[in-house]
């Protein structure tokens, strides 16, 4: 049966293993770096993320690493080392936390690389006209999806086919949830929801965050749509016999957990 003929997950069903997935490599990170054979190798763009605030690094790093080759730097010296070694396409600077002159840093940066994009994260009250010229900026608070959308305008990421956590994989392009030799098709919104949970594993994600990131709304008067999609993802995990659960944290949100041995 071709993928085009298979319907998104709903009723219970078993689907045959596709030998084209035999070359998947499940690494320790969220991203499966090996692509389908038919697509060849993927070359991902480089991003240097200069940040001195650990909480912001933890918030944004997983999302960046799903699309780009990321080098994290906490100081000016570390940032220039990343630039010399990796020759990135984008240098992302959290101007609200770094403890060096951003203008002088950009001067040194452009002496090393003539063709590089710069992007600033600004704190509340920071004036853009007092910053060096830049290709883009956002003001805090910044969500991972907001940042990815803005960066994609500067330099499109290489096609990201698979995101994974501990062997549970999501084929974003073809909309399949994969565990071992089984897979199930998902609807577009189910893919977005699964993607967000896999990108934030073992972390309670609030209903408000999910509604904003997946459905693009701040309205929480009716979250039945979210509940229904969580229900279908739970059924998909059960159908795949995958050792993962979506835990409900009362009055807080949802958390994807692994129940595999040793996790």
Mean pLDDT across every amino acid position: 82
Which CATH first-tier class of the largest domain would you pick?
Answer: Mainly Alpha
Q: What strand order characterises the main sheet?
A: 2-1-3-4-5
Low-confidence stretches: 1-7, 9-42
Quickly count the helices.
Answer: 7
Main β-sheet description: 5 strands, parallel
Helix proportion of residues, in percent? 25-40%
CATH architecture classification name of the largest domain: Orthogonal Bundle
Distance between the termini: 35 Å
Give the CATH topology of the largest domain: Arc Repressor Mutant, subunit A
Secondary-structure element string: EHEHEHEEHEEEEHEHHEE
Number of domains: 2
Briefly say what this structure is.
This protein has helices spanning 54-67, 76-86, 102-112, 144-154, 188-199, 207-215, 224-240, and strands at residues 46-50, 69-73, 90-94, 117-122, 136-139, 162-165, 168-171, 176-179, 182-185, 205-206, 244-249, 253-258. The chain is of the alpha/beta class. The chain folds into two domains: 20-32 and 160-258, Arc Repressor Mutant, subunit A; 46-154, Rossmann fold (3-Layer(aba) Sandwich).
Descriptive report:
There is one protein chain. The chain folds into 2 domains: 112 residues, Arc Repressor Mutant, subunit A (Orthogonal Bundle), CATH 1.10.10; 109 residues, 3-Layer(aba) Sandwich (Rossmann fold). The N terminus is likely disordered. The radius of gyration is 20 Å and the shape is elongated. The strands form 3 sheets. Strands 2-1-3-4-5 form a 5-stranded parallel beta sheet, sandwiched between helices. The protein is of the alpha/beta class and 263 residues long.
